[in-house]
């Protein structure tokens, strides 16, 4: 019963937050800080409705003052609420073109300056990637990317696609990994306190001076660091539960 009530309340919240976010987008269209404000609109009430307790250690992300590429593990649609807690100022993201058809959310996503990628059209996808490189270099705006390219549904970190890392090298900006503990299979949405989630950002990884020949090593290094961090957080939560 609690699960059903939560889903109904979350659906109402999703629509209301979308409407308010759309007003922000219309008031100041394509402002790069719209994404942070809208992320908080969804995240803070959403986490309360879900009964999730999130503890974030994200100093390396939130105190970084220049453009960067942010990479994070992508577990489920609940990431909107979980990771929305730590979206820094002047940050936009890359999403599928199909997002624009979601009522309210799709329109505010576009007005927030996020990049809609048409994966079915390689030419348009390449043009969009060039636009993000220009954004990183000249607009002091960071890009948030889920390098797995799809939700992993709590089954572990999937192989990374190249796009985020190519952007970082092309623009010469650092990469900041953001890791969330595996929460999807731990959530108990029929309980009042449905679970705990840990979020940690890792130190920035420099790409200045790198060539595309170093791309495989960069991807491997970032993924290895994230795997280690996620595993450590999962072990910490398991130990806390046992205690």
TrEMBL record:
Give the top-level enzyme category: transferase
Q: What is this protein called?
A: 1-acyl-sn-glycerol-3-phosphate acyltransferase
Under Enzyme Commission nomenclature, its number is: 2.3.1.51
Give the similarity note.
Belongs to the 1-acyl-sn-glycerol-3-phosphate acyltransferase family.
Which transformation does this protein catalyse, written as a reaction? a 1-acyl-sn-glycero-3-phosphate + an acyl-CoA = a 1,2-diacyl-sn-glycero-3-phosphate + CoA
Q: Which InterPro entries match?
A: AGP_acyltrans (IPR004552), Plipid/glycerol_acylTrfase (IPR002123)
Chain ranges passing through the membrane? 7-27
Q: In which pathway does it act?
A: Lipid metabolism; Phospholipid metabolism; CDP-diacylglycerol biosynthesis; CDP-diacylglycerol from sn-glycerol 3-phosphate: step 2/3
Keywords, A to Z? Acyltransferase, Lipid biosynthesis, Lipid metabolism, Membrane, Phospholipid biosynthesis, Phospholipid metabolism, Transferase, Transmembrane, Transmembrane helix
Domain (Phospholipid/glycerol acyltransferase): give its ranges: 68-183
One example of the protein's molecular function in GO is: 1-acylglycerol-3-phosphate O-acyltransferase activity
Q: Show the domain comment.
A: The HXXXXD motif is essential for acyltransferase activity and may constitute the binding site for the phosphate moiety of the glycerol-3-phosphate.
Q: Which organism is it from?
A: Pseudomonas zhanjiangensis
């Amino acid at each position: 019963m609690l699960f059903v009530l939560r889903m109904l309340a979350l659906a109402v919240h999703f629509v209301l937050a979308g409407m308010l976010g759309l007003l922000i987008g219309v008031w100041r269209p394509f402002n790069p800080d719209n994404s942070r404000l809208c992320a908080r609109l969804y995240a803070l009430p959403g986490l309360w409705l879900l009964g999730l307790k999130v503890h974030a250690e994200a100093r390396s992300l939130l105190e970084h003052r220049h453009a960067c590429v942010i990479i994070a593990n992508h577990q489920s649609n609940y990431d909107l609420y979980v990771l929305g807690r730590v979206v820094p100022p002047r940050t936009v993201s890359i999403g599928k073109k199909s997002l624009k058809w979601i009522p309210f959310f799709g329109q505010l996503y576009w007005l927030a300056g996020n990049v809609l990628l048409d994966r079915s059209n390689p030419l348009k996808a390449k043009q969009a990637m060039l636009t993000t490189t220009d954004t990183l270099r000249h607009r002091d705006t960071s890009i948030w990317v889920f390098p797995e390219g799809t939700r992993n549904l709590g089954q572990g970190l999937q192989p990374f696609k190249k796009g985020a890392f190519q952007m970082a090298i092309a623009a010469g900006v650092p990469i900041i990994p953001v890791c969330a503990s595996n929460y999807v299979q731990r959530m108990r949405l029929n309980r009042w306190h449905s679970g705990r989630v840990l979020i940690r950002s890792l130190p920035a990884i420099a790409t200045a001076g790198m060539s595309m020949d170093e791309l495989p090593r960069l991807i491997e290094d970032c993924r290895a660091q994230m795997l280690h961090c996620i595993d450590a957080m999962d072990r910490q939560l398991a130990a806390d539960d046992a205690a």
